[in-house]
Design brief:
Strands 1-4 form a two-stranded parallel ribbon. Helix 1 packs antiparallel against helix 2. By secondary structure, it is mainly alpha-helical. The protein has 3 domains: about 30 residues, no CATH class; about 90 residues, no CATH class; about 90 residues, no CATH class. The radius of gyration is 21 Å and the shape is globular.
Length: about 240
Amino acid sequence: MEFNVPKCKLMHFGSHNKCFDYYTHGQQLQVVSSEKDLGVIITDNLKVADNCNAAYTRANQMLGLVSRSIRHRNVDILVRLYKSLVRPHLEYSAPVWNPHVKDKFLLEKVQQRFTRMFEELRCLDYHERLEALKLWSLEERRHRADLIEVFKMVHGLSAVSLSKFFNVARSTTRGHTWKLVKSHSNTDMLLHFFSYRVLNRWNSLPQEAVDSSSINAFKGHLDKLRTVKMGFFMDSWSA
C-alpha cells in the first residue's frame, strides 16, 4: 500500500517540545493544532473544549429536530427519542475526553433543555425533573461509565489490559480486594484523566459490587449505590 503523505499530519505535544519539522518522501508534514481521530477531536494542549463544543452543537441540533417534529409531548416517546438520537452525541467516547469545569456545564445544558420540553415539569428544578423522567445527569453517567470500564478490565472483559492504566494494591486492610493504587499527581490536568479520576470511586465500591457475575449485575449494584450514597457519581463527591 502506498503511503499517502498529504493525508498525514504532525501535532506537537508538551510545553518543552522543540517542534522539529518532519519529512516523508521528501515532503514536509503539515503541522496542526487539532485533529479529529475516530470521531474525537484531539488538540495539542490536550484540552477537550473543542470536542465538547462539537458534541454540544450536534446534540443541540438533533434535539431541535426532535422538538420540531414531535408535536404530541408524550413522555415515554420523547425520552426514548432523546436516549437514542440526542444523548449518544453527548457521550460518544466520553471516557477518553471526560470534560470538567465549564465544558461539563455546556453539555448538561442540552439535557436541561430537554427536560424543560415538558410543561408540567418546568416548575421543578433540574434534578427534580431528572427524577421525574428517571434520568441521570450526564455527569453521573460519565462516572458510571468509568466504573463499568474498570470492571471490564478487572474481569478480563475489555480488550485493554488493566495493567496498562492501573496497579492493583498488593495488600488491603480496608475495602474490597481489587483496590487500585493511587499515584501522586503533579498537574491539575492529570486529575481529570481516566486512570486517575476513577480511583477514589472504584476503591470505595463494596465487595459485592466488584464481585458481580456480569456487567448487568454490576450496573444493578451501581444503581442501588446511587440511592444510598447521595452524590456518589458527582464531581463534588469525595471518598
